[in-house]
Specification:
The protein is an alpha+beta fold and 404 residues long. Helix content is 37%, strand content 21%. The protein has three domains: 164 residues, Reverse transcriptase/Diguanylate cyclase domain (Alpha-Beta Plaits); 56 residues, Orthogonal Bundle (DNA polymerase, domain 1); 103 residues, Dna Ligase, domain 1 (2-Layer Sandwich). The protein is globular.
């Protein structure tokens, strides 16, 4: 029996949730951003997209294009709670549900097909239930792999339902632009275009040996996905290759003590995500941006793998100490790379895992009562933050989620 996968993608998720919970916003061009003046647009309604409002624009850029744009402050807990409730709906159909991000889900219904008239019938029921419960729409793709299901769902947005049977995969992919393939961005598109490759069909027929010479291991990836084959194991989207956080600040920061406090804050956020992903890291990268938008970065590889925020901070702060800043900074970022899974081995010396148990306790408290419920005292120097999460955020807490 062929595998049957459903891909569910919420349409303009953050903006749609805001319009559904605030009826006066329905039908209006809106954009969701953080509360700060320098935060960027993270989501826009379809009414705003028609005018060219895109994710990543600053508020000023967006308002210059569309002065009537309504900018709404993001509400993290509302989006996470809605994601949790959508997840509960999907679990009624199959236990094989993966939360890919806050607005994307994969469902493997292969083992449950005998319980339903057809995969398309399941998709229709899910769409109806989500619309009824939350007054938002979603697009659904049905395929024999996660990749095909995702590409089918994306091709039908918004509020679409596209099913691609196994025998129809070559025809579905033949004329699809290469930029519609997940993982292919602007630079990769241009590089492929230089080779004369503009469609999935053309990419699938290109010699993989040439792709490998040009793009390294990505050449094999490109060849696989252009033929609709799964590049990663079905359970996940591949292990993360890096984990990072960055912040743009309301006012430029020139004070060295405040800069180091901000670096500690970022390092602790990165460490918490490492522990959540059950990963450790050996490479640390510090990023800073000046008021003229010049962006700089320095990297270091430490001697051992870690998921300790203090160790990450020490490395990142050391990088900053080695720099003579030419001006105050408007953005700071900390990213870790060279990742590997945590070793499951028990400690050989009693009490050696004290730090891990301490981190675990901190993470549980912050997950239950909110970020920064417990933290290092130095972070008290930093003002309380009100930022909006990225759509790529993957909820991790057990139910119930906190609501506003």
């Amino acid at each position: 029996m062929d595998k049957t996968v459903l891909y569910i993608d919420m349409d303009a998720y953050f903006a749609s949730v805001e319009q559904a919970s605030r009826p006066h916003l329905k039908g209006k061009p809106i954009a969701v951003a953080g509360s700060g003046k320098r935060t960027v647009i993270v989501a826009s309604s379809y009414e705003a997209k028609r005018f060219g409002i895109r994710t990543g624009m600053t508020k000023g850029e967006a308002l210059a294009i569309l002065p009537s744009l309504v900018i709404v402050e993001g509400r993290n807990s509302k989006y996470v709670d809605t994601c949790a409730r959508v997840h509960e709906i999907l679990l009624r159909y199959t236990p094989d549900v993966v939360i890919h991000s806050i607005d994307e889900f994969y469902m493997d219904i292969t083992r449950c097909l005998d319980l339903f008239p057809s995969p398309v019938a399941v998709a229709r029921e899910i769409k109806k239930e989500i619309a009824r419960r939350f007054s938002i729409t979603c697009s659904v793709g049905v395929g024999t792999t996660r990749l095909i299901a995702k590409m089918a769902g994306e091709s039908g947005k918004p509020d679409g339902l596209v099913a691609v049977k196994k025998k129809d995969v070559p025809g579905f992919l033949e004329d699809l632009p290469v930029e519609d393939i997940p993982g292919i961005g602007r630079k990769m598109k241009l590089a492929l275009n230089v080779l004369g490759i503009t469609t999935c069909g053309g990419l699938s027929r290109y010699p993989v040996s040439v792709l490998r010479r040009r793009f390294g291991i990505w050449g094999d990836y490109l060849s696989l996905i252009s033929r609709g084959l799964e590049p990663f194991p079905a359970g996940g989207g591949g292990a993360p290759r890096s984990i990072g956080h960055s912040m743009t600040y309301e006012k430029n920061i020139g004070d060295k003590a405040m800069i180091t406090a901000r670096i500690l804050e970022l390092a602790e956020m990165v460490a918490a995500r490492l522990r959540r992903e059950k990963m450790t890291a050996k490479g640390i990268c510090l990023i800073w941006r000046y008021p003229d938008f010049t962006t700089c970065a320095k990297r270091v590889t430490i001697r051992f793998f870690t998921q300790d925020g203090r160790v990450i901070y020490d490395a990142a702060a050391g990088l900053m100490d080695s720099v003579r800043l030419k001006d105050a900074v408007r953005l700071l970022g900390v990213t870790v790379y060279n990742l590997r899974p945590v070793s499951p081995a028990a400690p050989l010396i009693d009490g050696f895992d004290r730090a891990q148990r301490l981190w675990g306790a901190m993470d549980r408290i912050n997950d239950t009562f909110g970020e920064y419920t417990i933290h290092r005292a130095t972070i008290l120097m930093c003002a309380k933050h009100h930022w909006v999460i990225s759509p790529a955020f993957k909820p991790h807490k057990s139910y119930p989620y906190r609501k506003e």
